[in-house]
Amino acid sequence: MSFFKLLIRNRLAFAGLIVMGLVLALVIATPILPLYEPNVTDTANRFLKPFEGGHILGTDHLGRDLLSRLLWGTQLSLAVGISAAVFAAFFGAAIGIVAGYFGGTTDNVIMRGVDMLMAFPYILLALAIVAALGPGLVNALIAVAAVNIPFFARNIRGVTVGIAHKEFVDAARLAGESHLKIILTEIVPNVIPVIVIAMSTTIGWMILETAGLSFLGLGSQPPQADLGSMLGEARSALITNPHTSVVPGVMILIIVMAINLLGDGVRDALDPRLRSGALTRPRPATLVEREGPVPAPVESGTLVLTDLQTQFRVGERVYKAVSHVSLHVAPGECLGVIGESGSGKSVTALSIMGLVASPPGVIVGGSAIYDGTELIGAPYSKLRSYRGDKVAYIFQDPLATLHPLYTVGDQLCEAIRVHHSVSKAEAWTRAVELLKQVRIPNAEGRAKVYPHEMSGGMRQRVGIAMALANDPDVIIADEPTTALDVTVQAQILALLNDLRRERGLSIIFITHDFGVVAQLCDRVAVMYAGRIVETGPTQEVLDDAAHPYTRRLIACVPELGEGRRELHAIPGLPPAVDRLPAGCAFAPRCDKAQTLCQVGVIELEGGASRKVRCLYPETDIAGMAKPVAQVPELKKGAGA
Ligand code: ADP
Ligand code: MG
Q: Which residues form the ABC transmembrane type-1 domain (predicted)?
């Protein structure tokens, strides 16, 4: 969504924008408006009330027209405040970028200087600067800009330090670019949003500071009006003629409020996380909005999914990430879920425990029954008591799921104590025991190290230990070995295999690798574009796949000792799930596709164990309706 649209959607920011627009229009039009001269005194008409003698806002203690002085004064205050903000932002950002980019001594020297400036109360510093330079509007501007430079420098330095060692900056360095070029092309574009945000939230403040200096008589000099000096001059008549103070006071209030509202809106709209809707606080459990009745489960097992449907609603678009997925897993069984990336495997897994972020995720139908309890739409307290205790997850990247600042032992203890009230010592003993179970050598010692001190394979073992912490019945492993090398992968797979045999665990193992499925899984479900296209016992599917997609996936697995064999990549890309074609989603990439493949809904058909969603399967499957004869007159691509 565009920046402007987002800004307008924020009602308060929009109000701020309109008010600021009006003020600016008035200020710009001031020279051509039919106003009195702002500085011409008329002592006969002192302190006229509003609307007396043709003065809309009345006159001040010297008989000068307040409206005229107000508009000219606003013009001056805005000009000074905004210029000060621009100066402060420019120099502050430059200092911050240099300090953050070069680091080391440069950083130290610069930032200690900035710290020294910050050690003074800013208003005292501003007063000292004006006292040294002499009163006057330009000097007030310099003072306000100077006292705000440290604020920008600190902010921008922090951001720059974060960027200066990112891979793309290193890449630019390796390409031999000069420091200046790197700063201008790699760093500056990344810090500009931060500068704009910092500016938009401080301009109001700087206008106030300038007004403050003028109020004290250190800014604009008589007879020139700005908002601060108008307030200062009206001070003595505050009780007798309050309108002289109220007029500039209200203007300051309006401007600062409008700028701050607008600034907050700009900040929110510029934040890329907010733009994708991520900053809206996600619900504790995925939103469930059923569009039909709860389907009755046909299968049985520890965990049974029936017709699960999960969508992402982003603006007008609806991404059908998971459509009518049914899966089940029995005690001690391992079910593989396989598919290309983006086929909806993770979303299926996360939907079970209501872990898909809402917004934008919504579960629109289906059932997930664990041990006789419906999980879809279950109260949050119920889901929470099951999460990690009955159904546990293992994720792909253990470094991202482990807390960097706690030892692995502490994190295991925490996982145990969430669900069981045991003492710290008991939890620690259990943690060490768990580490032993996942075959970590020297478990007592290893419990005391931090995640970054472990290798990838060891961290993943800790992830598994964490999943095992509360002796769950079901483990959902989402590509747990994708980031590991093959030897470690083999160890982890063997470990999971042992665990399920020892403990009767049910495992749902998500992967994109048929080789892994062949090693570990009893049954396999193949997903494509959010649907299951084939399911059956692993060996049967591997030996004689029925869906052309499954065949292509299997053909992509390289085999050692097979001699040279051509690996067949699948041409084309999976369809976008917000525009799924009618019929079979794989048809556009399938060389066996016929006209009928792109019409209507193709059901998952077959017997109790083997099922396929294909009109012209590669192999006959018991219990399937006969393939329909080709209807030649149907046009290719005709939707239903
Ligand atoms: P994978 O099979 O690789 O695990 P996922 O389950 O993560 O795939 O994703 C399934 C589909 O859901 C993808 O097409 C993805 O683009 C879509 N998706 C995932 N998260 C979001 C989101 N927050 N907003 C919109 N679409 C999403
Ligand atoms: Mg995934």
A: 74-263
Q: Is the CB of 577 under 6 A from ligand 1?
A: yes
* Residues facing 394 on adjacent strands: 477
Q: Which ligand is nearest to the CA of 282?
A: 1
Q: How far apart are CA 432 and CA 442, in angstroms?
A: 9
The pLDDT confidence band at residue 408, using thresholds 50, 70 and 90, is: very high
In this predicted model, what pLDDT tens digit does every residue of 161-201 receive, in sequence order?
Answer: 989 988 899 899 999 999 999 999 999 988 988 888 888 87
Q: Which residues make up the CATH 1.10.3720.10 domain(s) of the chain?
A: 3-30+70-274
Report the 3 state secondary structure along 76-97. Answer: HHHHHHHHHHHHHHHHHHHHHH
Question: Residue 152 in contact with residue 195, Cβ under 8 Å?
Answer: yes
Span from the CA of 380 to the centroid of ligand 2 (angstroms): 24
139 vs 131: CA distance, rounded Å: 9
Decide: 572 and 548 in contact? Cβ < 8 Å: no
Residue 134 falls in which region: left (phi positive, over 0), alpha (psi -120 to 50) or beta: left
What integer is the mean pLDDT of 536-555? 90
Topology (CATH level 3) of domain 3-30+70-274:
MetI-like fold (1.10.3720)
